[in-house]
Amino acid sequence: MGDDAHTSNSEVGEGLTISVSTAFYPGAAVDPLPPDLILASADSVFFYVHSNRLLRCSQNGFNASLPIPLTEMYTGDCPILAATETSTVLNIVLHAIYDLPFEQYSPTSECLVGAVQSLHKYGAVLKQLVVPSTPLYQHLMSVAPLNPIDIYTIAAQFELEELAVATSSHLLSFSLSSISDEMAIRMGPLYLKRLFFLHLGRLDALKRILLPPPPPHPPTNACNFADQKQMVRVWALAVAYLAWDARPDLPITTIKQTLNPLIEKLPCNVCRSSLFDRTKNMIIQWSRVKNTI
Fold it and tell me: Tell me: the pLDDT tens digits for 102-117?
């Protein structure tokens, strides 16, 4: 059916073909015991699994669907349980439950978010399954740079602190005005506030860093206090430009590209050195400003 779930076709009876997961098939070495349950995805892919593994991971009887009543339909010795997830999402859900790597599937951010939501629905303890040591966490982080708001939203929704903090560093360029009402509700007031404070805090820090001008140097024959006003004007011009373009993700390269050409035009070597040192110090300070919630 779907390549993401890695399925194969098997014939059952006369003329009947079913799609079976190549990760969770009857002879798969995912558990010492043989499978005792078939999960059928919404797109009709069969996953042969172990009810004890699902129940061990669940706090709600796998969404109140296990154990299977005796009246359920059976195929051989395994009852069939219909799942609402597509095979791509269900595949990731089961890999997370069995703690199996799944980099070969290259799941999209949409698939990963759907898997987290389904794991929650099935009563899994997300704070145990979505931690830095697990494949699911690592894959969520791998897609975070491309789709950070969706990863941050799902992390906030289920209070996955480590994932939310790590993902927030990719949201410095995100326009907060584009957060929808639905996103805000799912984030909740705490994580929404923390994201706003991250942006506001970095902007305030940037303005504080930019404000102090370079200190004047002792007057020389070539450059007295009056001459040094040119350095102050250069600094004020650069600061005004940077402040006008101030944003939480202001690149260090922008600071350098703004100030370095102005530094080179100063006629006084001491002024140039002073302005260079001030710029270097400003860049160091900006690089140290907290960039996560």
Answer: 999 999 999 999 999 9
Give which of 199, 218, 201, 219 is closest to 209, Cα–Cα.
Answer: 201
Q: What angle do CA 143, 247, 287 make, to 5 degrees?
A: 75
Per DSSP, 58 falls in state: B
**Helical ranges in the chain per DSSP H:** 51-57, 61-64, 87-97, 109-121, 126-129, 135-143, 148-157, 161-168, 181-210, 229-244, 252-265, 269-288
Distance CA(86)–CA(228), nearest Å, equals 69
Residue 84: closest CA among 54, 60, 59, 115: 115
Q: Model confidence over 191-220: pLDDT tens digits?
A: 999 999 999 999 999 999 998 888 888 888
pTM: 0.87
Q: How many CA atoms lie within 13 A of 249 on its CB side?
A: 9
Q: With helix as H, strand as E and coil as C, how does 80-125 read?
A: EEECCCCHHHHHHHHHHHCCCCCHHHCCCHHHHHHHHHHHHHCCEC
Q: State the amino acid at position 241 in one-letter form.
A: Y
For the packed helices 181-210 and 269-288, what is the interaxial angle rounded to 10 degrees?
A: 150
Token pair recorded at residue 39: 């999960």
Short-list 157, 172, 150, 170, CA closest to 249: 172
Closest CA to 46 of 103, 13, 15, 8: 8
Query: Phi, psi at residue 144, to the nearest 5°?
Result: -60, -40
CB 111 within 8 A of CB 92: yes
